[in-house]
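Tokens for chain A. Residues wanted.
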């Protein structure tokens, strides 16, 4: 034992140093973890709570420019045939960039870009106005896929970018801002077509909140669209924020509603589609995939229930539940094999009324 003692004695300083080092490392780790926790779950949420600018950026994601380096004046460069780029200036003086896409039956008629508006005035085939979701612009790939589907169905299409998106003018970005932009474009289309063809509105994701709000504002006007498609919709922004996957990091905290959710309501970033949809007069078709991991399917169901409760019948409001086995998620309902038939059936039934 004495021999072991003499062997251990020279190692004691090394052991003590190692214990000291590990203790310091543990203390540093604990301190760092506390600092990170305070920053992530304390400081950043408080900054978010009081910053309208950050709230808008997170909601609209208009700073996410994809695809990059798009020449909006040349839609053919991204594979859209029979399209023209044009601009509208709203009543508020905001310049809006848009595309008009011809139906398939008109692609071989050598129509000049100058004659496109005349074609729209004389339209007899259905006209779709597309309102996109947040981030990207009207050239985003999943949106282009849908445009081609409309074109192959032999429909006219107009798509555009809200203020501060794409090549539209940078202007104050707010719920009412994007809604008034959309309302203006819709009124322009209805006036241009002048009853010669049915006009339908298609909103996707955030665009469902924009479109239902815009149509609610038009509720008292004589001119109404023939129908409304809502793809991957939510019932209101408060619910969408609470159920978004990223929110689950903070949702367990007692101040979540006050710090994260309430500011959107206070700053009029509400997109209360469950209220606006009660004022929509035209028939409504809701499309939602069960495996949507951005806007949970349950929120689309809640919107459907709100609409059904008010309108009272499934002829006025319909909902298509797309099984998760198709793997279409939030952006790719455009690839659903049954979608063309669903669209045609809805358009045909509404157009007959």
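Reply:
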């Amino acid at each position: 034992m004495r021999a072991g003692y003499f062997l251990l004695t020279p190692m004691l300083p090394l052991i003590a140093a190692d214990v000291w080092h590990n203790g310091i490392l543990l203390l540093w780790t604990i301190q760092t973890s506390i600092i990170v926790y305070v920053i992530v779950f304390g400081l950043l949420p408080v900054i978010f709570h009081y910053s309208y600018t950050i709230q808008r950026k997170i909601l609209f994601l208009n700073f996410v420019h994809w695809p990059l380096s798009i020449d909006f004046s040349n839609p053919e460069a991204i594979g859209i045939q029979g399209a023209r780029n044009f601009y509208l200036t709203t009543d508020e003086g905001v310049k809006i960039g848009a595309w008009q896409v011809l139906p398939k039956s008109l692609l071989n008629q050598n129509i000049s870009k100058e004659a496109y508006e005349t074609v729209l005035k004389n339209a007899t085939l259905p006209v779709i106005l597309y309102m996109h979701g947040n981030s990207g612009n009207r050239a985003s790939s999943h949106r282009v896929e849908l445009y081609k589907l409309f074109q192959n169905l032999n429909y006219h299409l107009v798509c555009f970018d809200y203020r501060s998106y794409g090549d539209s003018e940078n202007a104050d970005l707010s719920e009412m801002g994007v809604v008034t932009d959309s309302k203006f474009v819709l009124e322009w289309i209805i006036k241009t077509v002048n009853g010669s063809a049915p006009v339908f509105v298609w909103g996707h994701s955030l665009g469902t909140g924009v479109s239902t709000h815009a149509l609610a504002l038009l509720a008292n006007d004589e001119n109404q669209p023939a129908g409304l498609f809502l793809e991957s919709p939510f019932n209101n922004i408060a619910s969408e924020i609470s159920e978004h996957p990223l929110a689950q990091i903070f949702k367990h905290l007692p101040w979540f509603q006050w710090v994260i959710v309430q500011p959107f309501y206070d700053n009029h970033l509400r997109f209360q589609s469950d209220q606006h949809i009660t004022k929509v007069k035209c028939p409504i078709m809701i499309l939602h995939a069960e495996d949507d991991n951005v806007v949970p399917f349950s929120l689309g169901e809640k919107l459907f229930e709100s609409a059904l409760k008010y309108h009272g019948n499934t002829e006025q409001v319909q909902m298509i539940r797309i099984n998760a086995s198709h793997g279409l998620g939030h952006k790719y309902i455009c690839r659903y094999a049954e979608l063309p038939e669903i669209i045609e059936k809805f358009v045909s039934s509404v157009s007959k009324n």
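The beta strands are 83-89, 95-101, 127-131, 156-160, 199-204, 227-231, 284-289, 317-322. The chain is about 45% helix and 15% strand.
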